[in-house]
């Protein structure tokens, strides 16, 4: 089982090296002469842009070669599944989730729901006790406030008691179609996957401009992940709506309690253990997008920190022969665009101010934003179940592209904080509101 034994001290030094390397890459071109200043950025724009274009857009707009999605199987033949939810202060949504799980079509006795009440201070324990009286499939575990390990610790606690072939991890605000498992399990079994991530769909995309932008971002993410998978790259888990084969999870060491993002860390654990991860577009898992910039800032700092932690923790393994050439290329391109480019761009601006020259990274940034816009366009125009995706008009597309600029603030700030401040592992919780006036997910199975 993956306890928190891995030391986190080395991350400060690696964060500092990451900042120094990106800082040098962003500032050095300003001391070159004339057109040579743009040469590094143009070269990277061609190489990384070419890979991204081949991986994402040509696959997204071209004919699909992916296995058929959503094909059901005989209910009687489906294996046992344990649905697992780590819940802390979720009184607003936990009842809705339990009732939704009760509506899933699955063989009687083959489905159990485990809720880990992670030291809730609201009415979550009382709500769960009431639900247990009505639903025999509901199992509740209680963790004390000082148990440690965050969500990973909660998941490891229940993992010791599971016996089903599959473990289906959900957030407390998740919503599912009634036929989700009868379509997801056969897809995972027939594809030989060790894990499958469902596409994430935002239930409250119409609440404001910020939730609309997040809905576009989730569509972009799913398109990119499917493109990466199609060319032999890497698919990453996203926490909510992840199906895990229990023996593969145990073989990979369980959940790492020394990280703030259990899903991203587990993605690399499975990768290094040779366990394949797939992604399913339909049916999606429905969740709430955060409603304010303050909540987005807290959430994205955690995502950025966890994303960098896994590269720092598993770097030697990622460079070893345990990964194929296609996987290494995919991870290198992803790391440079997602984490390297934002820090290099900030260093480029500082270099421009110091030397009084023009910025030099703009060709690479232009290509990155342009290709991201193409992925948003492809994702939001693709037919899909669940909440409708934002309409692709010039305003929404411009909003989606501009919104992605927040990573150019989040990544550099998080990297600087990781390099300078002693690490105290804190698992920041995203609040789930579960408003009564939210529109329910369209359920084609029920229709």
Please write out the topology.
Elements: H1 10-27, H2 39-61, E1 81-87, H3 94-102, E2 111-118, H4 124-134, E3 138-143, H5 150-159, E4 166-170, H6 180-191, E5 195-202, H7 209-230, E6 242-245, H8 246-251, H9 262-272, E7 277-287, H10 293-318, H11 325-355, H12 362-381, H13 394-403, H14 407-420
Parallel strand pairs: 1-2, 1-4, 2-3, 5-7
Antiparallel strand pairs: 4-6, 5-6
**For the record, what is the CATH homologous superfamily label of the largest domain?**
Spore Coat Polysaccharide Biosynthesis Protein SpsA, Chain A
Rounded to an integer in angstroms, the radius of gyration calculated over CA atoms is 22 Å
| Order of helical and strand elements | HHEHEHEHEHEHEHHEHHHHH
CATH topology description of the largest domain = Spore Coat Polysaccharide Biosynthesis Protein SpsA, Chain A
DSSP, total strands: 7
Helix content percent band: 40-55%
Main sheet makeup: 7 strands, mixed
CATH architecture of the largest domain: Alpha-Beta Complex
Summarize the structure.
With 447 residues, the protein is α/β, with parallel strands linked by helices. It has 14 helices and seven strands.
